[in-house]
Amino acid sequence: MTAAVVGLSHSPLIGRNDPEPEVLARVDEAVESARAVVRRFDPELVVLYAPDHYNGFFYKEMPPFCLATEAHAVGDFGSQGGPLSVDTDAARTLAKGVLDRGIDLTVSARMTVDHGFAQPLEVLFGGIDRVPVVPVFVNGVATPLGPVSRIRALGTAVGQAAAALDKRVLFVASGGLSHDPPVPVLEGAPPRVADALIEGNPPTPEQRAKGEERVVQAGRDYAAGSTKMIPINPAWDNLLLDQLERGDLEEFDSWTVDDMAAQGGGSAHEVRTWIAAYASLAATGKYEMTSRFYEAIPAWIAGFAVTTAEGR
Ligand SMILES: O=C(O)/C=C/c1cccc(O)c1O
Ligand SMILES: [Fe+2]
């Protein structure tokens, strides 16, 4: 088996509230070199770690992570909707392999996903139905959250199970790094919001449009500096990337949920997808980070990174 990683920040504001053309050009260049790595690697299977933003997972039942044997995307923020091309056989094999390794994995036979999953598939492969994929939801938004060590253990178990498939497997991480978008919080929420976060009542098209406009406006305010949102933290983001580059993944075990939120904002926990993906690659052998791009992009409410890594 050979393995590789692409880490790719997502933002629903891409194309809706873009930064200056020079920033866009630098991002495009980084994404294009990630695409080139993917083309050369030619994956037979993609394991995609991504969060959800209260479109598929709700407090009625909120697992810390969940692997899908089938999935469909809701098409939020203009992302592609419809079924993902899930490799159900591979997903079942990976689920069994992960459970056999003592990780209490939740499995979904019909997962609902949002732009967190759809965007990297569209960016890297041109659509959500182009490559055999195993979607793995990693909760990066809904507190309380468990220790980061469990995410590293999940990634390690997935990597070990994937190694037994004897395929070229690309692990993709979607999310983060530091960012503090206006995603609702259950604690202290007014009853109608709390009910939606718990039950997941599907929004009407008007409600969805209003919620999305609120995020777009937040991006404009963030870029203009007129907001109370926690600022993007390039030092913290680069510390994370340094540890991933060095392969010092055990060091993440001492990171705490409270400190991560203080350093990187309420959605900084999306970096859990990166830790999982790199732990999966590390479980297959030594690796090298072959490209690394980072830029703070307030218009997208994102400490935005693109990295690639390949087994040595
Ligand atoms: O409101 C949402 O659904 C998500 C917002 C958001 C904004 C910026 C970066 C991200 O990773 C997000 O999920
Ligand atoms: Fe997100």
UniProtKB/TrEMBL annotation:
InterPro entries: DHPP/DHXA_dioxygenase (IPR023789), Xdiol_dOase_suB (IPR004183). Residues 6-304 form the Extradiol ring-cleavage dioxygenase class III enzyme subunit B domain. Its cofactor is Fe(2+). Pfam families: LigB (PF02900). It catalyses: (2E)-3-(2,3-dihydroxyphenyl)prop-2-enoate + O2 = (2Z,4E,7E)-2-hydroxy-6-oxonona-2,4,7-trienedioate + H(+); 3-(2,3-dihydroxyphenyl)propanoate + O2 = (2Z,4E)-2-hydroxy-6-oxonona-2,4-dienedioate + H(+). Its EC number is 1.13.11.16. One of its GO terms (molecular function) is 3-carboxyethylcatechol 2,3-dioxygenase activity. CDD domains: MhpB_like. Keywords: Aromatic hydrocarbons catabolism, Dioxygenase, Iron, Oxidoreductase. Catalyzes the non-heme iron(II)-dependent oxidative cleavage of 2,3-dihydroxyphenylpropionic acid and 2,3-dihydroxicinnamic acid into 2-hydroxy-6-ketononadienedioate and 2-hydroxy-6-ketononatrienedioate, respectively. Belongs to the LigB/MhpB extradiol dioxygenase family. This is 2,3-dihydroxyphenylpropionate/2,3-dihydroxicinnamic acid 1,2-dioxygenase. The lineage of its organism: Bacteria, Bacillati, Actinomycetota, Actinomycetes, Kitasatosporales. The gene is mhpB.
